[in-house]
Amino acid sequence: MRGTAAHIVRTLLLSLITLFGVSILIFLMLRVLPGDPARVLAGLNASEEQVSRLREQLGLDESLLTQYWGFITGVLQGDLGESARTSRPVTAEIAVRIPATLILAVVATVIGSVVGVAAGVIAAVRRNSFVDHAISSVAMMGVSMPVYWLGLLLILLFAVTLGWLPAAGSAEPLSIVLPATTLAAFSTALISRMTRASMLEVLGQDYIRTAEAKGAPPRTVIIKHGLRNAFIPVLTVISLQFGALLGGAVLTETVFGWPGIGRLLVDSIAARDFAVVQGIVLVYAAAFILLNVIVDVLYVVVDPRIRY
Amino acid sequence: MNTTPARRRPSRARSLAAAAALGLLLSACSVEDPEAPATGGEGGGGTFSIAVGIDPDTFDPAGQTTTTVQNMVDYVVETLVVFDEEGELVGNLAETFETSEDGRTVTLGLRDGVVFHDGTPFDAEAVKFNLERIIDPALTVPLGSPFEVIESVTAVDDTTAEVALSRPSPGFVSALSVTTAGMIAPQSVTADGNTNENYQRPVGTGPYTFGDYTAGESVTVEKFADYWGEEPHYDTVVFRIVPEAATRESLLLSGQVDMMILPPVSDIQALQANEDVEVLLAESDRTIFIALDTNDPLLSDPMVRQALNYAVDKQAIVDNVLFGAGEVMDAPMAPSLAGYCQTGSYDFDPERARQMLADAGAADASLELLTPSGRYVQDQQSAEAIAGYLREVGLDVSVSTSDFPSFLARVNAAPSENTVDMHLLGWAPPYLDADFQMQMFRQATHPPAGLATSFYTNPQVEELLTQADVETDESRREQLYCDASQIIWDDAPWIFLWTQSFPVVWSDDVTGISATPTEKFSAIYARPAN
């Protein structure tokens, strides 16, 4: 365990350098984008004086170095600046959106993991049966169907035709069902395929035959001897998917009017709201790094042979 | 008021079972909103909910840019004057408004007995505070240009305010109808977490008080008991923020909202055929056009520009690409503006266009057409169709698009750096007067100073518009705009396309909904249909 602790500390220290690099990258990327934030913000009808006044207020007339220095010293003090569009602090803008994004990502990941792993195990155990083919076909659909399309179809069926579920928003407890299902479709499919492949490999190993030979019940063989050993690559996929869901729920959030951080990011890019975009990207980067550390620890829990 | 009981009952039963399953998971999270429409009380005046597409940036009247957000602010904050349904300017918080003979003093007779939501009286001091606030250089006021003529504001007595202008400005009183010039309680800029620069909880005199804003989700307003005017029916109005048009439509069709704006245009005909909903294709003052770069060697020839106008079958595009959500332009401005007169038409005539292009030596010229995507009704699709018509008459036209800030950076560049031959653009005066539209044809507003992106100028037009700027006689002023329109129409700095419609759709369970030509809906006095 000592080695693991040292590994985590090392990872976290290295991540500081990563975050620093991310901050420079996103800062520069925003500034090479065409489009004057002051003009966009002031609106089409604004006069040139208003635009240049706004440019000054936003500090956009200063040198890049001065602007970056202001940004990074703020970050070190926990201040991500102020949204040009809403005049609210960026930390507050992000904070109100994070719960919605987090809950959606968690629910979708839970659905994806539970359904995906179960389907993958069944497909592996019943290899080449009708069930296996059926699961593979559905998984294929899940991977290929655009989120946008799937989301609208689900809304039409469950909100408009059947009237069972809210079509949009997050105000009611049931609101999460459709967006989470939509979001989970892709990861469920991916996880089930990964689980199947990994299980097939493990089920062919000698120790499985040994376990069967000594008379262990099939359930024990499959779950304890099989799945546990097949789980490392699956865990990697799940964690990557969770990370992607945190950042990649933009389309789902848009279709379902879900008030998450992805929509804020897109709105902010469209409005050239630099401070908010920088803040969100930094938060994403930090979340990804944290997620990787957590997964590193989980590897050790799942497979005690792993040492760092 | 969100769903009829009959429609909702089956959903409740199912809801419970599934809610139990998800309840635990969700109880710890803050996305639940106790004031959510579908669970709101049905007693009293109930709740009216409206699906809109835009998440508000600011509720400060002075900071407004988009009409959707203005529409929400209008429930809370009122203006001195308003345009009525006939498009006539009438008094509101100001019962009377008079402009002096020399056009430089506007006297406002204020309504007596009006109070702000915080209990403070609405009086001449409040008018002075608000008008001075929107000309304060320290504040960002995107729609502030019409108010720059204000020299000073004097509170003569409680109910009389006098505005001195630096020059006669016939459009000034009309501009007071814009949400930007809405009246907020002076004390509220330092109360309730507000600051003058970051004013997020508006306090006005309107029929509703500002309730809640849940970012990305909803805005709620509550009925104001001491409202001076007619009492609205509903106790609570909820604006649901749903960016996807098809989802807004689903919310309406499933009875989860009472009204929506901007459905997917391709569904308009199906909605019109649906007996459960009403569709209003409201007239808007937003003109959509292809601005032609009159500095371009080829496009500097008016004959070429006229030829482009003849080459495009605008009616066919309105019918087939916009699904009827537009009216072909017959003047360089929308008919709802004061100063409009029917000017002319460029009837679809590809033969004539081809001939004119040949005569001008532009028979097989190459042109780039830049278009925004998703900003105006079917903008990119229309641009593609227009390019198709132009190719029909022998031109080599390529269409390109980009996100709006990049688009704006290109079309708003100074002439020396401007590389755009033609671009599709929309322009909507915030108040119904020709002066704002005419900025598009004046040298003073050529980019980068303004958005007169065809760089058009004509000394006669400049002269007529300069006269109109200070002409206080209404009919003479309108004639000046009419004369200028005629010259502009013949000079054809644009391919004149259409004024776009503003579609509003509501459940037939409700009534009392209309819209104004400034792309705003009027639903404050919505009520149940029976």
From TrEMBL, chain A:
It is a multi-pass membrane protein. The chain crosses the membrane at residues 12-33, 102-125, 146-167, 173-191, 230-256, 276-302. It is found in: Cell membrane. GO terms for molecular function: dipeptide transmembrane transporter activity. Residues 98-299 form the ABC transmembrane type-1 domain. Pfam families: BPD_transp_1, BPD_transp_1_N. Keywords: Cell membrane, Membrane, Transmembrane, Transmembrane helix, Transport. SUPFAM superfamilies: MetI-like. Belongs to the binding-protein-dependent transport system permease family. This is Peptide/nickel transport system permease protein. It comes from Geodermatophilus obscurus.
TrEMBL record, chain B:
The keyword Transport applies. Keywords: Signal, Transport. Coiled coil: none annotated. SUPFAM superfamilies: Periplasmic binding protein-like II. This is Peptide/nickel transport system substrate-binding protein. Gene3D superfamilies: Dipeptide-binding Protein, Domain 1 (3.90.76.10), Dipeptide-binding Protein, Domain 3 (3.10.105.10), Periplasmic binding protein-like II (3.40.190.10). GO terms for molecular function: peptide transmembrane transporter activity. GO terms for biological process: peptide transport. Residues 1-30 form the signal peptide. GO terms for cellular component: ATP-binding cassette (ABC) transporter complex; periplasmic space. Belongs to the bacterial solute-binding protein 5 family. Residues 88-445 form the Solute-binding protein family domain. Transmembrane segments: none annotated. Pfam families: SBP_bac_5. PROSITE patterns: PROKAR_LIPOPROTEIN.
